[in-house]
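User: Please predict the structure of the protein below. I'd like the answer in structure-token form so I can feed it into my own downstream comparison script.

Assistant: Understood. Taking the following sequence of 505 residues as input:
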Amino acid sequence: MRSVACILLLAAAARAQSVEGTIVNTATGRGIPGARVILFRAGERASQPLYSATADSEGRFRIEDVKEGGYTPHYSAEHFFAANVIPNGPEFHVVATASPVRLEGRLAPNAHVAGRVLDGRGDPAPNARVDLTLSKAFWAAQTDSQGRFDLDSAIAGPSDYRLSALPPAGWKPPNPNPDSRQPRAWARTFYPAALRREDAAPLVLFPGIDIRDLEIRLLAVDVHVVRGMLVTAEGAQAAKVLLSLWEAGPRRDATYKTEPQPDGSFEFPAVVEGAWRLTSISGNLRADQWIDVKGHDQDVGKIRLAPPFTLHGRMAIEVPQGLAAPRGPEVLLLPQHAGQIVFGGPPIRDTVPYADGSFRFDNVYAGDYLILPGEPPPLFYIDSVRLGETALEGEVELSAASPEVVIVYKTNGGTARGTVENCGTGTVLLTPQSGPAWGSRTGTCDGAGRFEIGGLRPGEYHALAFPGDQPVTPETVGPFLPGAARFTVRAGEVTRTDLKLSGLR
């Protein structure tokens, strides 16, 4: 019996192998001390970790006795992010009779942004909130007693980040307007001195960049009265229902709150100039409206509480004769206003189509949304997204009266083929010169710097290439579009374009 047990143990050991490698800093090429690698079962996105290791002082790791099979590695390290925003490396296989498996994990260092927040008098502003924002993400910090802030965990990339500061609660207000004697308050101020995000100076953060000594001086602006009438869905006056004003930036709490009078009238007595989201919730009823306070008091009229509704849609997939229609991908419904996701608003929703291509979003409240179709099935491209007969290229206002959403998929798209000088593992981004961002596609280079991207919607495109360790999305490459290559994609044809890497290094 003992001999049989020994044979079984030896056989089990023979079916194992070691996995070793290095986790490197993409900005320096050196190993990252203390970085982590975890091995998961290949193809199982939610599987339990099977093996793990911590890198030594030179970024090297070794895992012994890994059983035969397929695995996916996941790399991580403090103050680093995964190249291309994908924390997993490519799948690999362990074969007991082969040599030890060699891996290389690549992590990019976070950006570091630091500075001070002062009020208009030049005094440091302690406990001010500082936000570094993208269209769909943000990082936050709080100033110390000297108004200093430090953001060391921002994921870097070819993006137009915006930096802003929100004055601390209870901070001594500025003097009244010297001309009109109108009361004033400190406003959220975007770097270097702007009231609105679109007027702020964009920051482009390279991996590992260290930006210090930025100064945001809070702006003093007039405050105005905002008044209106809150009514029910049937038009009756609504009382004892809280109303809130939320700023456009990422904040968890409303800036102003009030309750209507018994006749439904309400008033916010001192609102800082800017864009605000006015909300009210009563049971399953909700009111949600954007207002722009500027230059004078504002009467917003009747604000109507309304119940949620169901938004219906369908996928129209044009299939060549003889082929079966594939099942369409998921669809996202993003609360969005002026190109920015609405933080703290209605939740992001997703759904998948039924077998007949129809889909629905339940419990949707009236407001501004972006309808975002998922990646098309192989050999297909997204031709259009429509709300009834209206083609959509961005966000849209939805209500209970909105017609159905129609997403059209077609085949016989165009193909882009070419080379990228010194591409390595670079990413190629093709984005429409005009039109919706969902028309964008990405691809990677092979060992010879060649790329090929098919299934393209016919039209005019920009083409950009970035180093493989930079996160790239269609929404964040605006600063690089002036230097992009331009080309035309035609249905069923191949278009060639040769590129150079954009200047990120």
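That's the full token string. The CA atoms of residues 234 and 304 lie 9 Å apart.
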